[in-house]
Amino acid sequence: MPGELSRAAAIIGAAEANEIGYPATPKTALQLHIEAIKNVSEQTGIPISRIDGVFSAGWSSQLAEHLGLHPKYIDTTSVGGCSFEMHVHHALAAIHAGIIEVALISHGENGWSARATGGRGTGRPRGAPDPWDPGQQFQQIYGVSGAPSNYAHAMTRHNHRFGSTPEDFAHIAVVTRQWAMLNPRAIMFSKETNPGGGPITVEDVQNSRVVAWPLTLLHCCLVTDYGGAVLVASPEVARSVKTKPVWIAGAGESMGHANMLEMEDFTATSAAASAAAAYRMAGMGPEDMEMAMIYDSFTITAGITAEMLGLAPRGEGFLLWKDGRAAPGGKFPINTNGGGLSFNHSGMYGMQLLVEAYRQLSRTAEDGVTGLPGKQVDARSCIVNGTGGSLSTTGTLILVAD
Amino acid sequence: MAYTKPIPEPDPVHRVFWEGAKAGKLMLPRCTTCNRVHWYPRLLCPFCHSRELEWIEASGEGRIHTFAVQHRAFGGWADEVPFVTAYIDLKEGDRMFTVLRGVDPTKPERIRIGAKVRVEFEQASDEVSIPFWRVVEE
């Protein structure tokens, strides 16, 4: 029995900034936001002035001001890469409650350009972190910095507990690359567009430079620019626009910890809880899912998450990729845009998941620009899971086509 | 030799821990209502939410819960790569993060999860000593 909120709103459009990936000239996060917002407005035919709720990871007041909007609902939830799945959850509730009709969820992040601008244009504070923060006092002093240094500890523990190996997880990188080769917008689309692009093998993954053992470079996601925006709307609005609605059948969110110091089980995340909530709302289960978009900041993230979502038994998430089910032409496609590993990862990747899930379920995944023949899959349901922080926070959505 | 890596700045909540470290003692917070030790230090017990907390001197013993080898680091740590980071299951309960000593970072396959470790302190400044954990049993 689906819950009250199930299908109370739909994603009615999803668009990207004009230029993503490694732009030739540096872009600001705001540029990436605004390009994507204009594009989703044109795609759906919904004028920007009709947006009455603004959701973003910290940018909502700047965006609303820039667009001259005076929204009735403002959400700035910013808890890492899953923030955007949570925004959809919150927008669903706000629309169901009758507070708003059209929610804008937007993301702009110049992970690549920030290297050239010295961190300018990111919208983030540039000062030093607070030295009194527990993470600074008890973790950062030991030289860990950045996500790979943290996530590597999870791979070691998974290998120890389940007898898995880094080679098992390397298959995730190999299969995800196969999807990227069907997406001309992917950084690793081909050798012609990037020296590191094109097909890779398990040996290539294992022989790439060690970043934080057992993670080598090709177990890790990219660092790029990205702008993306989706519109979530009431059923009435959804039926009035020219684009196809993708219904929000289920949504859930949870968190395990903020700092990895508090991660109780290094082989599990709160996705088990956020997925349980989403399945319950949808009145559906893992067996009803026909594809998945799973945050792959690292191969270990995707493997563990597949287990948490109930798509594979504990300890065996990587098998979905290793046995080819997740690959192009496979029975259970996963990360059909090429993933954070080979398509695009700006820092917070949850928006990329949403955009691709919308494209697949609205049958617009092969337009020649964002997808070549073979990329569109035959799925009417998709589970989307974002992971934020250091395997800290999760947002899960169950999206279904009409 | 001068300590070139980040030195923590003790704050009011964590002051007792750093005072202990300076004296070569591992001090841990314990709740006197549920008797559980927690890490990192809190204002309320994270298990039962009691405000009745005390500091105890811990055994300084633990075991490796999981680990990684850092091949990329910033600041003073950049000069020490590769080095092994680890989460330590404390004998008294809960878990701490550290840089592991007494291991070969070029042979991670020889490092054993569950291996026994013992705390030691390195003086980083006149005011601050930092805990590190050393493998004491193969």
TrEMBL record, chain A:
Gene3D superfamilies: 3.40.47.10
Record-annotated Thiolase C-terminal domain positions: 252-399
Organism from which the protein derives: Tepidiforma flava
InterPro entries according to UniProt: Thiolase (IPR002155), Thiolase-like (IPR016039), Thiolase_C_2 (IPR055140)
Protein name according to UniProt: Thiolase C-terminal domain-containing protein
From TrEMBL, chain B:
Pfam families assigned to the protein according to its UniProt record, in alphabetical order: OB_ChsH2_C, zf-ChsH2
SUPFAM superfamilies per record: Nucleic acid-binding proteins (SSF50249)
Domain ChsH2 rubredoxin-like zinc ribbon: 18-54
Domain ChsH2 C-terminal OB-fold: 55-122
Signal peptide residue numbers: none
InterPro entries, per the entry: ChsH2_C, ChsH2_Znr, NA-bd_OB-fold, Thioester_dehydratase-like
Protein name according to UniProt: Zn-ribbon domain-containing OB-fold protein
Record organism: Tepidiforma flava
Species lineage: Bacteria, Bacillati, Chloroflexota, Tepidiformia, Tepidiformales
